[in-house]
Automatic annotation (TrEMBL):
Keyword annotations from UniProtKB, A to Z: Membrane, Transmembrane, Transmembrane helix
RNA-binding listed as a keyword: no
All residue ranges annotated as the Guanylate cyclase domain in the record: 409-534
Record GO biological process: cyclic nucleotide biosynthetic process; intracellular signal transduction
One cellular-component annotation, GO: membrane
Keyword Transmembrane found: yes
Superkingdom assignment: Bacteria
Pfam family, one: Guanylate_cyc
Protein name: Adenylate cyclase, family 3 (Some protein containing HAMP domain)
Ranges of residues in domain HAMP: 328-382
PROSITE patterns: GUANYLATE_CYCLASE_2 (PS50125), HAMP (PS50885)
Cross-referenced InterPro entries: A/G_cyclase, Adenylyl/Guanylyl_Cyclase_3/4, HAMP_dom, Nucleotide_cyclase
Length: 585
């Protein structure tokens, strides 16, 4: 800015700032942040209608739900118990048939009164399961009567040399000096599991203890070779079925309540239900016999019993929603008024913010008065820094005593040679030119979170560091100046030359003025320094399209590697001490 256009008064820093004022502003800001809870009128009306309906109908539906749950729970218990009892009956039948067959062989051996050989078993092989093998051994003498039939002894699954899978062995003394061993491989029990499968939704399983798998129906092709240490596959290895996660602990896994044993557990592909019985007697002592379902399929009976309940809940939800909609509709005009007022608080004035007329007399009067306020404030907002006012409101810093001491970065810009340029323009052309200049500068400053303090003739004063805290205020200011310089240098349509000064220092910032008229501004020696740096630019490079000078105090706050040209110590007009100056554009 040309020297003759400077304000007559000089700007000087006060001796010190009162810490009480800063503490008062901080305390007030903290109180304003604690907003009381408020509920919209429409929501309140809707909730009243909805809750009343829910309270009346909810008790009825809750009673129905409890009764349905009890009935459905008993039905599922009965269904599961019937399935498990039927499966155990199949297994008991298998062992019973084998027991009878082996005793028949013993009777046959006693009638032959000689040692049996392989040919004697040909007639019995067709009666035994496929892949079953016979083996004869020498009998051990015992004290049992010679004509008494011995009990069939069953072993656990054991590895047999030369065999790919383990076998369960039945052993019986034939009473003729021989013992009969019949080996039942795991494959035999696949047929048993198939006989236990009542529908396609089931997956029957037989486990030896909780960790070893005898068979899982549908996994006949699983490749596994028995070893002496692990004659049966480990359950964890059967990743082809979700059953391998049955005993895993998890937030969804739990034991099923009821009269039967079962677990609900998540696995890949969904959630599953396993019902089972742990056997502790007979040839299957230590086995677990069970059935695996998808959880939603096992609960079909429960779903069917809940049809009426769901219908009642749907009707209740629909009624509550309708009540809520009616309440919201009654409160919608007030909500729209609140939204428009919130936009007005942010100094946003658009045609869509105007409120329509209302059939309710009182509300119509309020809407018309509000529309009149929008017009008045829209005219007023053109003469105040809208961005600054918005920030002050957001920060809760509207108290007239809001004054504090801060370190900030100040920027002054000035049109070089504007006086001679304006002498060749009409008043209208001058205004258009200045408005274009101010629009260009203002946009760059606003985009980098700066605040325009005032327009001074053909100059602009802006600052960073208030009203919001900006620890990187110097970096933001330099970024804005650099962007402005680049825009002016590259765009030939912007026929202007610009001088810019940037300085960082302590200033007093806040509401300065009288009770009837105030400015949110900064005062202090740092402001004077920024103005003098801008003025000094015409001595450094008078013909430059853009020259921007920054003080060493500003450059000291920038990250390492910031590009600038040092001009060394410079003694500015009106200052005794020299100041280190850098050119950044």
């Amino acid at each position: 800015m040309d020297e003759e256009k400077r304000p007559a008064k000089d700007i000087s820093a006060p001796g010190n700032a009162s810490p009480a004022l800063s503490q008062h502003g901080a305390a007030k800001h903290s109180r304003q942040n604690r907003k009381p809870f408020r509920i919209p009128v429409g929501v309140a009306l809707g909730l009243v209608f909805s809750l009343l309906l829910v309270a009346i109908c909810g008790l009825i539906i809750a009673y129905m739900a409890a009764a349905d749950r009890r009935i459905a729970g008993r039905l599922l218990d009965q269904q599961a118990a019937a399935i498990l009892n039927a499966n155990q009956a199949v297994l008991d039948k298998f062992f019973s048939e084998q027991d009878v067959l082996l005793r028949t062989i013993a009777v046959h051996a006693a009638a032959m009164q000689r040692h049996l050989n392989g040919a004697d078993f040909e007639a019995f092989k067709e009666l035994l399961p496929e892949n079953t093998e016979f083996e004869l051994g020498r009998s051990v003498m015992d004290d049992a009567p010679a004509d008494a039939l011995q009990d069939v002894a069953w072993s656990a699954f054991e590895w047999r040399e030369g065999q790919a899978e383990a076998a369960k062995t039945a052993e019986l003394d034939l009473g003729n000096g021989q013992r009969l061993f019949v080996h039942y491989p795991r494959a035999v029990f696949l047929d048993v599991a198939r006989d236990m499968t009542w529908d396609s939704r089931q997956q029957v399983f037989l486990l030896s203890g909780r960790n070893n798998v005898i068979v899982v129906h549908g996994l006949q092709g699983v490749d596994y070779s028995a070893t002496p240490e692990t004659p049966l596959p480990l359950l964890k290895q059967m990743t082809e079925t979700p059953l391998h996660q049955i005993w895993d602990a998890g937030h969804q896994a739990h034991i099923i309540d009821g009269q039967i044993s079962g677990r609900l557990f998540p696995a890949s592909g969904g959630v599953y239900t396993a019902i089972y019985t742990e056997l502790d007697t007979g040839p299957a002592d230590g086995w677990i016999i069970g059935t695996l379902y998808r959880a939603d399929q096992f609960g079909e009976a429960l779903d069917q019993t809940q049809v009426v309940l769901y219908a009642a809940l749907a009707a209740l939800v629909a009624g509550a929603a309708l009540s809520f909609v009616v309440g919201r509709k009654l409160g919608r005009p007030l909500a729209r008024l609140a939204e428009a007022a919130a936009d007005l608080r942010k100094l946003e004035f658009h045609e869509e913010h105007r409120l329509p007329s209302s059939p309710l007399a009182e509300l119509n009067d309020v809407n018309q008065a509000f529309n009149g306020s929008i017009g008045a404030l829209n005219a007023f907002a053109k003469y105040v820094p809208r961005q600054l006012v918005t920030r002050l409101i957001e920060e809760g810093m509207t108290d007239s005593r809001n004054i504090e001491l801060r370190e900030m970065t100040i920027v002054f810009t000035d049109l070089a040679g504007f006086t001679s340029l304006a002498s060749n323009l009409s008043a209208e052309e001058t205004a258009v030119y200045l408005n274009g200049y101010f629009e260009t500068v203002s946009k760059v400053i606003a985009d980098r979170d700066g605040t325009i303090d005032k327009f001074l003739g053909d100059g602009v004063m802006a600052f960073w560091g208030a009203p919001s805290d900006q620890p990187d205020h110097a970096s933001k200011a330099i970024a804005a100046v650099t962007a402005l310089a680049d825009e002016i240098e590259k765009d030939n349509a912007l026929n202007m030359r610009l001088r810019i000064g940037i300085h960082t220092g302590k200033v007093v910032v806040g509401d300065i003025g009288s009770a009837s008229r105030m400015n949110y501004t900064v005062i202090g020696d740092a402001v004077n320094v920024a103005a003098r740096l801008q003025e000094y630019g015409k001595h450094v490079d008078p013909g430059a399209k853009v020259i921007a000078l920054a003080s060493g105090d500003t450059m000291a706050q920038l990250p390492e590697g910031a590009k600038a040209t040092s001009l060394g110590p410079v003694k500015l007009r009106g200052r005794e001490e020299a100041l280190t100056v850098f050119r950044i554009a």
